[in-house]
Amino acid sequence: RRSRRRKSVAIAYEPGQGDGAEPRRARWEPRDWREQLERIREMRRSRDAPVDEMGVQKCYDSSAPPQVMRYQVLLALMLSSQTKDQVTSAAMLRLRRRGLTVDTVLQMDDETLGQIIYPVGFWRNKVKYIKQTTAILKQKYGGDIPSTVEELVQLPGVGPKMAHLAMHIAWDSVAGIAVDTHVHRISNRLKWVKKETKHPEETRVALEDWLPRDLWKEINWLLVGFGQQTCLPVNPRCSQCLNQDICPSAKRL
Question: Which of the listed CATH numbers 1.20.1260.10, 1.50.10.100, 1.10.1670.10, 3.40.50.2300 matches domain 33-46+177-240?
Fold first, then answer.
């Protein structure tokens, strides 16, 4: 008589798991985030926020040699800290009229550079950082900018947000999420972080833990413009926001 064999049930493990391993916990993600994101895309469809018209991606000379273009991107990012897009754009235009390259900046004295970039925020510090960083680029990188976040943040006056945006814009590479004050504020308002974060770097780590990587490049552009037009730092325009009914922080009328 043919023996009946009990069918064995295959147990599927997550990659990296083996016999006796604990099942991997489901990754946390915010409630309603996909619908919230789609509605923000709808609100940003017209692309008419300051970041769209005068953001860093609009400040460099797209006809310049790639190395010069990348340098201009980095300088625009350095100028943009604590500064409105309109002011950064105007300062970059004045610099470009003088011929904005590593060599022209190194040949420029501090007073002249300061007069050109004024009134960007903390312009005196930025004169110092721009001259220091430009000298390093000339000596260490042949006039180009570094191609990794780790090297970029070592440059004077360059923080993580600038480094990630430089990777996005100058090198067309997504190494992480660029988190500025708008992304930081809105991520906390939407509860896109598991617990409240105090600083943009904390927010970047929290977002990268759950947000699909194919959205990392888009999220900065979306949220910055959304923060400039609707989700304002003070008195957000909740009545005009499509997410009013599913935003945990909405002021409902």
Answer: 1.10.1670.10
Mean pLDDT of the region 226-252: 95
**Which residue among the candidates 58, 161, 191, 198 is catalytic per the annotation?**
161
Q: Which residue ranges does the chain devote to CATH 1.10.340.30?
A: 62-171
Q: What is the pLDDT of residues 133-181, one digit of tens each?
A: 999 999 999 999 999 999 999 999 999 999 999 999 999 999 999 999 9
Q: Is 140 considered catalytic here?
A: no
* Domain made up of 62-171: CATH architecture: Orthogonal Bundle (1.10)
pLDDT at 188: 98
DSSP states of 149-194: HHHHTTSTT--HHHHHHHHHHTT----S----HHHHHHHHHTT-SS
| The residue count for the chain | 253
How confident is the model over 85-115, as pLDDT tens digits? 999 999 999 999 999 999 999 999 999 999 9
